[in-house]
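On to my pick:
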Amino acid sequence: MTDSEGSEKAAEIVAERWQEFLGFGEDVIDPAMVRAAYAQPRLRVLFPGVSHGILYLSRCTGYPASHDVPLVYPLLAGGFQVTGRAGEGVLGKVATLEEAFALVVAHLPEGSGPAVLGTKDGLRP
């Protein structure tokens, strides 16, 4: 498979996964969270996943995932907290999901682009 074919296949996998996630009900994840992330062009090219009701995004389509994209958590008192992956700590607390995912975009790993086919081991540093 050429790099171009791999990129096309990865884009198909990501698009299909997003369509699946956009159809999820509240029993899986807050649909507003999925829609807010999808509204960000730089995030909609990443591979979505969900764990414990939290959306995570990976720079690759396989497992293990990249685990280097910040996460958004709802706060009990209202608003959202954005945390970095790999020990970066709290990146900020904001009032809306739109602000939260804008903060995620601002803290994407350097060189982030569309998700690649494969696992985190195949990512370029």
Summary: The radius of gyration is 14 Å. Residues 46 and 115 are 5 Å apart (CA to CA). The first strand starts at residue 47 and ends at 51.
